[in-house]
Amino acid sequence: MTTHASQNPNKPSPIERLAHDPHKPLIICDADEVLLEFAKPLEIWLRGRGLYLELKSFALEGNIRRIDDKSPLSKEEVRILVDDFLDHVVDRAKPTMGATSAVRRLRESCSMVVLTNIPHHLRHRRQLAMKAAGIDLPVLSNVGEKGPWLPS
How many CB atoms lie within 10 A of CB 50? Predict the structure, then answer.
C-alpha cells in the first residue's frame, strides 16, 4: 500500500512545502544506499539471524533467504524483519562515501528533500541520525511507491 499526499493541483505537495527556496532547482533524494549505508548493515544483521541477502532484483521481497535451506521469506516476514532492522539501526546509520560533502555542495545551488521508504514512526529518528552525520535535510517517510509524492 502506498501512503502519500492527495494530488491537489492547487495545493503544494509536501515536498514543495519542505523545499526552502522555490527559486532553486529541487532535488528529491532517497536515503538508503544514496545518502546512508543500507545493504552492508542489513547483510550483517541478517547473518546474525540465520538469513542472507541475495540481490537478484531491487526488491527485498524474494531476496532475503534462510541460510539453512535457501528458501525466501514471505512478504509479511520481510516486512516485519525490515521494520525491526530499521528500528535497531536507524539511529546509527552511516553516510555513504562522499554523501556528506556532495549534499553540502548541492545545497549551495539547490533545494533538497529526502523521500525515504521507512516506517512513519521512524522518520524523525532518521532525520536526527542524518543530521548527526552532517546531512541536515528535511525527510519525508513513505511506504510503497514514491511517484505520487512528486510535484506535478
Answer: 9
What is the per-residue burial (b if ≥16 Cβ within 10 Å, else e) of 32-41?
A: beebbbbeeb
Amino acid (one-letter) located at 54: E
| Domain assignment of residue 7, yes or no | no
Q: Does 56 share its domain with 87? A: yes
Among candidates 152, 116, 121, 122, which has minimal Cα distance to 137? 116
Tens-of-pLDDT digits for all 152 residues of the chain? 334 444 454 555 666 666 667 788 989 899 999 999 999 999 999 999 999 999 887 788 889 999 999 999 999 999 999 999 999 999 999 999 999 999 999 999 999 999 998 999 999 999 999 999 999 999 998 877 666 556 55
Q: Are residues 53 and 31 in the same domain?
A: no
Tell me, yes or no, whether 84 and 129 share the same domain: no
Range of the domain at 144: 14-37+93-149
pTM score of the predicted model? 0.79
Within a 10 A sphere around the Cβ of 31, how many other Cβ atoms? 26
CB-CB neighbours of 93 under 10 Å: 22
